[in-house]
Write a structure and sequence with these properties.
Elements lengths: L25 H8 L28 E11 L8 E10 L1 E7 L18 E4 L4 E4 L1 E6 L11 H9 L2 E7 L4 H12 L7 E6 L15 H14 L3 E4 L7 H13 L3 E4 L11 H7 L3 E3 L26 H8 L2 H4 L6 H12 L3 E3 L11 H5 L4 H4 L2 H7 L15 H23 L3 E2 L14 H13 L3 H8 L1 H8 L20 E4 L15 E5 L4 E5 L2 E6 L2 E4 H18 L11
Parallel strand pairs: 1-4, 1-5, 6-7, 7-8, 8-9, 9-10, 10-11, 11-12, 12-13
Antiparallel strand pairs: 1-2, 2-3, 5-14, 14-17, 15-16, 17-18
Helix pairs in contact: 2-17, 4-5, 13-14, 14-15
Organism: Sphingopyxis witflariensis
Keywords: Hydrolase, Signal
Pfam families: Amidohydro_1 (PF01979)
Length: 563
């Protein structure tokens, strides 16, 4: 999503990635982590780099760490197994060993006994670090700096993010490098950018195939991980085709938000045929399935620049498109699977359109939503995604019907073997960083994914999508397996039983002994690159950041200001 309604031509925001190729040795990664610290690139307006990681922000990496007695959900689709001990050396998983037999006491005196750090995870669950495949960071109209979004992601188990884009070009690459060296408390960063961006680019608007290819080559040399396109007026189909083709030659990924401005000429089917890697959001899917040709039946008064028009009319696609199970529906999905296209639905970011009151009154806003971000959410002609000028029951009903069909499409794609990932696009439409990602997992389950399939979408599928363009079909993240990077999430509650327990605010459950409701859950520890972060401490840091900003602005520290 774009930051401001009227700023489509403005340089976009982004954050980047490690971009590791091939196999990863502990020695190589250790050397990278130990590299001398570099000064962060100074920010232009709109994005402020995160402060350096402070004493107490994460422990490690350690020569040898053992996580004892945990039940492992490894992300591959395999069932949970445990208890096991997981051994990490520096930031590489080197062993996963049985710690006993379910129902019996753990075996005593288990090897190894020479660890520098042991974490007793008896009764806990371990998952791979989550991967958020669609992020924008906390720009300065939403929070003081990028650490606000970073810490909320880490606090919810997100250890890798794909910025599309999250900060300006140079800041994104700088933040990516700082994260790779673990100089900041931040997820692993993958940096996708829009054609024509970057201060070093002198070729102007990428409105011809030749200019587009030249920019792709320039940006790939600069080190980006991929390209985000939006089908804007300067990029007709022949330009997009050139971008997708050149990106493959340069071994970088592509993701497209096929907006209404360009979707009539290149919908998701045609983009997939041209070599697009990922369709993000819902844009382009239903337009590939319109019953009466490639152009939606716009209301005569429709104005794309009026965002209530733009978003309320999206829901009409459910009436204008072919039905689930039709020949056209099945042919579309099979074509996208043949082309190897990933679907990144980001259902969470538009969920307020079907239930605005629920989104406005979420449990976490008072304590964890920055006052600037809360103000950004309010109905506004200027702020992108703040389109609830007169949001009616009728509009919500249309969106609910649209979601039923969209979810059906996503689930059917999964059922035929198509790849689906988890992305949040938080920072807009009442979605707070981290919390929005967990909601996406809930929505995938609502769409028909079983809980293990949800975890696979949130971990392995994201990793494959990020690393395959680089030529790596065995990504170093996405699963907890020997030889993989130590990106992990530790939780006390079984997430397969209830994804709500992943929210930083936990879930309510009746205590049968006291007959009182209690909050249970939340992530206990997030491990990124072998560094152990206390998720509760990260949340406390964010809560204090929010309080500090409220004090500075003269607002009550509790609750959120009314519009």
């Amino acid at each position: 999503m774009m930051k401001k309604l009227g700023l489509v031509a403005r340089q976009a925001l982004a954050v980047g990635s490690l971009g590791l190729l091939g196999s990863i040795s502990a020695t190589a990664v250790q050397a990278q982590t130990a590299a001398p610290a570099a000064e962060p690139v100074k920010a232009r307006a709109g994005a402020v780099p995160a402060p350096a990681r402070q004493q107490g922000e994460g422990a490690g990496p350690f020569r040898k760490m053992v996580i004892r007695g945990v039940t492992l959900i490894d992300g591959s689709g395999a069932p949970p197994r445990g208890p096991v001990d997981v051994v990490v050396e520096n930031n590489i998983v080197t062993a996963i060993e049985a710690a006993g037999t379910p129902g019996l006491p753990l075996v005593q005196g288990r090897a190894p006994r020479d660890a520098d750090y042991e974490l007793d995870a008896t009764g806990m669950y371990m998952l791979p670090g989550f991967i958020d495949m669609h992020v924008h960071g906390s720009s300065d109209d939403k929070a003081p700096d990028l650490s606000y979004s970073y810490k909320l992601w880490l606090a919810h188990g997100v250890t890798s993010v794909r910025g599309v884009d999250l900060a300006p070009f140079e800041i994104a690459l700088s933040e990516r490098a700082r994260s790779a060296r673990n100089e900041i408390a931040a997820p692993r960063i993958f940096s996708y950018h829009r054609p024509g961006t970057g201060r070093g680019w002198t070729g102007g608007v990428t409105n011809t195939p030749e200019k587009a290819r030249e920019w792709v080559r320039w940006a790939a040399k600069a080190g980006i991980d991929g390209i985000k396109v939006t089908a804007d007026p300067t990029q007709p189909p022949e330009v997009l085709e050139a971008i997708y083709d050149e990106a493959k030659k340069q071994h970088i990924g592509t993701v497209a938000h096929l907006s209404q401005i360009g979707v009539a000429r290149m919908d998701a089917r045609h983009a997939g045929d041209a070599g697009l890697g990922t369709v993000t959001h819902f844009y382009g899917h239903m337009e590939s399935l319109l019953k009466e040709g490639p152009v939606q039946n716009w209301d005569p008064s429709y104005n794309y620049m009026d965002e209530q028009d733009r978003f309320s009319n999206v829901a009409n696609l459910y009436r204008e498109s072919f039905e689930p199970g039709s020949d056209e529906w099945k042919d579309y999905l099979q074509t996208q699977k043949k082309n190897g296209v990933t679907f990144d639905p980001t259902m969470t970011i538009y969920a307020a359109s079907r239930d605005l009151m629920h989104a406005r009154n979420a449990d976490w806003h008072g304590q964890y939503t920055m006052p600037q971000l809360w103000n950004f959410f309010q109905s506004s002609r200027e702020n992108h995604g703040s389109y609830f000028f007169d949001w009616t029951t009728e509009k919500e009903v249309r969106w609910r019907n649209f979601y039923k069909k969209f979810m059906h499409l996503i689930n059917d794609y999964k059922n035929i073997g198509g790849r689906v990932t988890a992305g949040s696009d938080s920072g807009f439409i009442f979605k707070t960083y981290g919390f929005g990602y967990v909601e996406e997992l809930e929505l995938l389950q609502e769409a028909g994914f079983n809980p293990t399939q949800v975890v696979q979408a949130a971990t392995l599928n994201g990793a494959l999508t990020l690393y395959e363009p680089k030529g790596n079909v065995a990504p170093p993240i996405g699963t907890v397996r020997v030889g993989k990077l130590a990106d992990m999430v530790l939780v006390k509650e079984n997430p397969l039983q209830n994804f709500k327990t992943l929210y930083g605010t936990g879930a309510l459950r009746l205590n049968e002994q006291t007959q009182k409701l209690e909050r249970v859950g939340g992530v206990s520890y997030t491990i990124k690159d072998g560094i152990v972060y206390d998720a509760k401490k990260l949340l406390a840091d964010v809560a204090e950041m929010v309080k500090s900003e409220k004090r500075r602005m003269g607002l009550p520290e509790e609750g959120v200001p009314l519009p």
